[in-house]
Amino acid sequence: AQKITQTQPGMFVQEKEAVTLDCTYDTSDPSYGLFWYKQPSSGEMIFLIYQGSYDQQNATEGRYSLNFQKARKSANLVISASQLGDSAMYFCAMRDGGGAQKLVFGQGTRLTINP
Amino acid sequence: KAGVTQTPRYLIKTRGQQVTLSCSPISGHRSVSWYQQTPGQGLQFLFEYFSETQRNKGNFPGRFSGRQFSNSRSEMNVSTLELGDSALYLCASSTGTGLNSGANVLTFGAGSRLTVL
User: Is the CB of B107 less than 8 angstroms away from the CB of A47?
Assistant: First the structure.
């Protein structure tokens, strides 16, 4: 069965610093996709970045990058130059190649950016 | 373009009642999936619909059901509500094809927050 583990329940970071949010995964499917979503207090899940299991390069989207280490089954999110608006819950999720849109989520990391 | 729209945003029900939640996907998206989010269990997959057919189902009792219409709009229904059904219900839409392509990203709505008293 697929599993996502986020070991950091909460993190506190100073504004403008870089932050790394950890995510490890477990799957026996060779084809899968990894996602990171941000959830502010309003509740909406905001897509940040995607990494496919066959992608050769680490994904980047603006200030977000994904440190994908396939052999270690880790997909850490790196936020550069953090901003106050980055304070939110962050979820790592995985979708397998089984043909349906089912995401398995981790428990999330609450990130707080201090001024 | 318009995002995923969920209605109602907030609702309060009592035990034993039933509830219907609605989700309008992004135009052109044929896949709609539903998730339940609670503090104790986190985010859990309920079911996914693609072209009016249920394509996958999570591990929830039969009280939870859904459907999708020809315009891709989807509804989910919970019958005989229990206190434990209090949760944020999130709907997500996507093209539903070309899986594990970076273009096939799930876009979520703002959710429907259900409180069962």
Answer: yes
Q: Which residue of B has its CA nearest to A107?
A: B42
Mean pLDDT of B23-39: 95
| Phi, psi for B98 (deg, rounded to 5) | 60, 45
Contacts of B101 in chain A (CB under 8 A): 52
Pairing, β B64-68 against β B10-13: unpaired
Strands B87-94 and B112-116, by their bridges, are antiparallel
B58–chain A nearest CA distance, Å:
9
Contact B114, B46 (CB under 8 A): no
In whole angstroms, give the CA distance from residue A40 to residue A35. Answer: 16
Question: Where does the pLDDT of residue B1 fall: very low under 50, low under 70, confident under 90, or very high at 90 and above?
Answer: low
C-alpha A35/C-alpha A108 separation (Å) is 12
Q: What is the pLDDT of residues B38-64, one digit of tens each?
A: 999 999 999 999 999 998 899 999 999
Q: What is the per-residue pLDDT for A3? A: 92
Instruction: Give which of B29, B8, B14, B1 is closest to B116, Cα–Cα.
Output: B14
